[in-house]
Amino acid sequence: MKISVVGTGYVGLVTGVSLSHIGHYVTCIDIDETKVEKMRQGISPIYEPGLEELMKENIQAGRLFFTTSHQEGFRDVDVIYIAVGTPEKEDGSANLSYIEQAVRDIAANITKDIIVVTKSTVPVGTNHYIKELLISLVPKHINVEVVSNPEFLREGSSVYDTFHGDRIVIGADSEEAAKVIEEINKPFGIPIFKTDIKSAEMIKYASNAFLATKISFINEIANICEKLGADVESVARGMGMDKRIGSMFLNAGIGYGGSCFPKDTKALTQIAANLDHNFELLKAVIKVNNHQQRILIDKARERFGSLTGKRIALLGLAFKPNTDDMREAASIVISKELIAEGAKVVAYDPVAVENAKKVLPQEVIYTESIEDALENADMVFILTEWSQIKELDLNIYVQKMKQPIVFDGRNCYSINEVQQYPIEYHSIGRKPIY
Ligand code: NAD
């Protein structure tokens, strides 16, 4: 099948590369010339394990192409995937201007019947709007079908997820169009769930809202566990053994971030509000998360009083491990608040530093190694559970820091392990160690 993918961010590039890997001829289009130039040379503009190798392999196999030209990219294709961003507007609703532009680009360049597949996360009703807009813009003899195919990959393991996902959701009003998209996806060997367009759009928001709820729920349990002297790790393990609950997404920490959960939860409360429905549960989830992102600062203030003049090391800046994505990372809120309070912030991340420099306060100092970040620090905040941090020899905290006081926002170490070192250790939902 000849396919083109509009937008080569985390979703578009992984989709394009994976579709070419299962045998389709794929042209990826992006308006960012620097990105396209890099990708043509087999260089991935984003950090995703395994992506670059797969890109190179399929470019060499002659199945994967990159261009900035919509005209060139849409030539002779049967199916066009839209994977442009849908960032949040000031009121929390989704900004659909990139989607609209992509639709206009499609309408201006196609010359034959087409199936447009929306991968981007869009509010319920958007795919019907896309179809109406396309029909109003293309010549009458061209038949247009629109399919909702929301994406569930996780950044940091997106290539793995694309080949091992739990389900592929196909939302279509036309059975024929659904069949074509089903055939395209069959080689992935993943269960396919077909439904109507609106339900498919809602599945994406409901899934993210549910996962965010699970995170805020366990974080609230963790906060209560701390006060009770219970251990949230044991509580989560005991809960997760119940199949009705499941063990995933029960890791207490400093909350969720990233490009999806924060914006999609807000967008869903907005979708509900537009229908005069007050989605109270989801609003509470968002509120709990906002509080949880700051919890290490509260703990440090309780311990030290003022943080002014303190040298604070931040370990991990990306919103989660194995990605360089800094969107809505807890490190943004935390570093801003620490700098505003007059602390000296020294930060380390194995891959996200270049992106971090664009969004963290300019006073933040970056180091090449964990050891350099810890040098002479009054305290350390662990913000991302990178393996480099989880596997660190705990003696390093003792050797490098002014005083080994660790505020671990991701419960990277077991209490038993930490107890063997002269470290003061504050984590989430577990008893502190002095
Ligand atoms: P992104 O911001 O990383 O990438 C979007 C890309 O689209 C950019 O490279 C941009 O230059 C390009 N673009 C914008 N307008 C264009 C146009 N008219 N023509 C060609 N290219 C254009 O976005 P992302 O993180 O990949 O997310 C894309 C969508 O997928 C969003 O709706 C998001 O909510 C959804 N999603 C993201 C994830 C994730 O983990 N990132 C997971 C599931 C779903």
Automatic annotation (TrEMBL):
Belongs to the UDP-glucose/GDP-mannose dehydrogenase family. PANTHER family: UDP-GLUCOSE 6-DEHYDROGENASE TUAD (PTHR43750), UDP-GLUCOSE 6-DEHYDROGENASE YWQF (PTHR43750:SF4). Its EC number is 1.1.1.22. Keywords: NAD, Oxidoreductase. Gene3D superfamilies: Cytochrome c1, transmembrane anchor, C-terminal, NAD(P)-binding Rossmann-like Domain. This is UDP-glucose 6-dehydrogenase. It comes from the Bacteria. Coiled coil: none annotated. Residues 313-415 form the UDP-glucose/GDP-mannose dehydrogenase C-terminal domain. Pfam families: UDPG_MGDP_dh, UDPG_MGDP_dh_C, UDPG_MGDP_dh_N. SUPFAM superfamilies: 6-phosphogluconate dehydrogenase C-terminal domain-like, NAD(P)-binding Rossmann-fold domains, UDP-glucose/GDP-mannose dehydrogenase C-terminal domain. The keyword NAD applies. The active site is at 260 (nucleophile).
